[in-house]
Design goal:
mainly alpha; two-stranded antiparallel ribbon; 147 residues; DUF732 domain-containing protein; signal
């Protein structure tokens, strides 16, 4: 009786989709800053960048957090080109979720306003953003986020 070979790629894609779905479910609450201090600064003491839609509980993205997002996207640019736009967008989704969860209270803000990713990358690493847009065939990074 011949043995069937399991195809691992579809299984990996399904596992990845489930991981993204579980991250989305975990980050569905909206973070609201508390206390008298309205900004957060990075360890280097640089000023925080405030991004977000007016009146929606402004998200505070530090320079360190912006650099971290750029640092996560930059090494993946060659993978985006090799994988193509479909798998690359999936990878971008996973990266942005991971970045938002690492940086505490911004996950709810990213879920509410996907354009935060574009504003952060435009300011911190416009060349990386442009390269990602070209590789993923997107008009903006927010269009590639599916959460």
């Amino acid at each position: 009786m011949p043995h069937r070979r399991w195809k691992f790629r579809p299984a990996l894609l399904i596992a990845g989709a489930l991981a993204v779905a579980s991250l989305t479910a975990c980050g569905s609450g909206e973070a609201v800053p508390t206390g008298s201090s309205g900004t957060t600064t990075s360890a280097a003491g640089s000023a925080a960048k405030t991004t977000g839609p007016a009146g929606a509980g402004e998200a505070v993205i530090t320079d360190a957090a912006a650099a971290e997002l750029c640092g996560m996207i930059e090494p993946e640019l060659s993978n985006f080109r090799v994988q193509g736009p479909t798998l690359g967008r999936f990878s971008l989704n996973a990266m942005v979720h991971e970045w938002a969860l690492r940086n505490g209270g911004i996950n709810g803000q990213v879920l509410a306003d996907k354009a935060i990713v574009d504003r952060v990358t435009t300011g911190a690493c416009p060349d990386v953003r442009t390269e990602a847009l070209t590789s993923l065939e997107l008009p903006d990074l927010a269009s590639g986020l599916a959460f």
